[in-house]
Every structure is written in structure tokens, then in C-alpha cells.
Amino acid sequence: MPLTGKIYDIQGFSVQDGPGIRTTVFLKGCPLRCPWCHSPESQAFYPQLSWISMRCVGTKYCQERCIKACPKQAIKAEGTRIDSLTGEELQLIHVDRTLCDNCGECAKACHPHALYICGEDYTVEDVVKRVLADKSFYEHSGGGATVSGGEALSQLEFTKELLRRLKEEGIHTALDTTGFAPWEAVEAVMPYVDLFLYDLKHMDSERHQATVAVPNERILDNARRIAAAGGKLQVRIPVIPMFNDSEENIRATAAFCKELGDAVTVVQLLPYHNMGVSKYARISDGTVLEATPPSDEKMQQLKGIMEEYGLNVTIH
Asked: How many C-beta atoms lie closer than 10 Å to residue 113's C-beta?
């Protein structure tokens, strides 16, 4: 049996996930539960039914297809919306998540792909072939491939083999990671990673665990070990209002990055945005953090504090 990994997206022409133009491979599954997560579909380790309301045609015929297709009777007609082009009132559906088992039968019946399964199995060769299709972009921009998540180290064997194969093809590799994984997992992929995109969320472990469900000691220790082993880190800090945007925490984070020395190529401040709000509604009836994004003035203030420590800091 070929080695497979569960992937929820492969994004070409990405300029946010490392240097140059890149192809980013997003793996499902993450041990953290960040309430502001902009990709909530990345958290679960299994495929999930997703529903995009604006794709829903809303006609009686179309609804009958998906409603009848569901063996659990989890899809019901509920609510309406107005078509922005025709002004016609269209009927919406509702997915009862307590009944849905993500079997995907409704998605097969949904012609406009308003219902679809998020998360598919890919072989390593499938992904390598897709990445190589964009190789000319990497060669002209200094880019490459980024393996992201979720937490890609949670699918260690697949991630390691994928990175190894990409290096064989001469592709620059980056691994976007929370750092929350056994050191043995990090060590296993290090020979095949040119750059770690490394998330730091809060320097206080108790606050870290209370908010994202895991402590931070392992994350900080792994960063130190990567630096000591000669790895390169692009530190990424999501700036979340009322969580980690205090001067005290920013100074503690800056001091930690300074401790890592030349291993840190750049520190990126990522201002909170609310893209995850609509995406969360596609896969769950629950709620996600909704906050006011930090102002430009606030971001410049935090950038200035970190630069006092001699760090190369950008606002992403």
C-alpha cells in the first residue's frame, strides 16, 4: 500500500508561506485548539462535511437531491436567502451536526458543490507531481514548497517522506509548524527542511494552555533545539487582541527570539483577522473568536518593541 496523508488543500502561487512563490500543502489534524484559527477545517484528523451557503442553489429539485441522499436524515430545509442577482427568495438547508457522520453521500449529490468533503487521502507521489507542476515559479522567484497544517508533524511518516522526495527534486522546502510535537519528530524531518515557519503564541505556559489547549514548554524547547542543530526559523506571531498583544508578552517573546541567535531569519507579526468566522460556520454549529483586528498603529508599536532587541521584524 502506498503511503498516504490526509490533505484538505493544495494552494499554488502562495506568497504568504515562506520566501518567493510557493506551493503550500495543507494537512489535516492539529493538537491545538486556537479559538481564532483562520483554518478551522484543519483541526480535525478526519474528513468533514463542509457547506458553503452562497453556493447553494436553493431550488426544490436541488434540495431534494441532497436531502434524500443523506442516510442519517441530517440535512433539512431551513431558512431562506435572497439571490443577489435575481432577487429571488431561495430556500437554504441546515446540516444537523449531531446526526451527520461525514459519509459524503450528500456531497456526491450536490452539483454546485455547496456540500463537499474537506479532507482527502493523497499519496506522496500525487503531491510531488502537483508541486513539480509549479517548479518554474520557484526557479524564478526563489520559492519552493511549504508543508503546512493543521500540524504536519502529526502525520509524521507522510510529512517526512514528502519532504525527502521534494529535496530529491531540488525543491526548497519549508515546514509550517506549531512546534508542538515530540523532539524525535522534529529531528526526523530536519535533514529535509530548509526553513521552519515557527509559530509562537504566548510565552506564559498557563495562559497558553488555557487558551489553545496545550502548554508551551515543548514548543519553546523544540525551537531551542532546532537553533542549536543549525536549523533556520522564520518566527510567526499571530497578534491576538486581549491574548498576547501586551507589551510584557511581546518583550518576553522578543527576548526568546534573541536567545535563538542567527537561527531566526525574521520575525513576522501576523495581525488577527476574522476570516475563520465564516469558515468555521461551514463545518460546525459552534462559534469562533470574533474580535476587532489590531490597528496599524498597534502593529507598528509592537514591531518597534521587538526591533529594540535587534530583530528583523516584519508585519505580514
From this structure: 10
Task: Give CA separation, 93 vs 53, 65, 81, 98, 224, in Å.
Answer: 8, 12, 10, 15, 50
Contact by Cβ (8 Å): 29, 149? yes
Strands 75-82, 89-95: pairing is: antiparallel
Query: CA–CA separation, 284 vs 48, rounded Å?
Result: 10
CA trace torsion 10, 14, 20, 22 (10° rounding): 10
Which residues have a Cβ under 8 Å from the Cβ of 167 and sit 6 or more positions away?
Answer: 173, 192
The answer to whether residues 88 and 82 touch, using CB atoms and an 8 Å cutoff, is: yes
| pLDDT tens-digit readout, 5-24 | 999 999 999 999 999 999 99
Question: What CA–CA distance (Å, rounded) separates 213 from 211?
Answer: 6
What is the tens place of the pLDDT at every residue in 37-70? Answer: 988 899 999 999 998 888 888 777 777 788 899 9
Single pTM value for the model? 0.92
**Rounded Cα distance, 51 and 36, in Å:** 20
- The full length of the chain comes to 316
**pLDDT, tens digit, 9 for 90 and up, residues 207-260:** 999 999 999 999 999 999 999 999 999 999 999 999 999 999 999 999 999 999
Residues 196-213, mean pLDDT to the nearest whole number = 98
Distance CA 203, CA 99 (A): 40
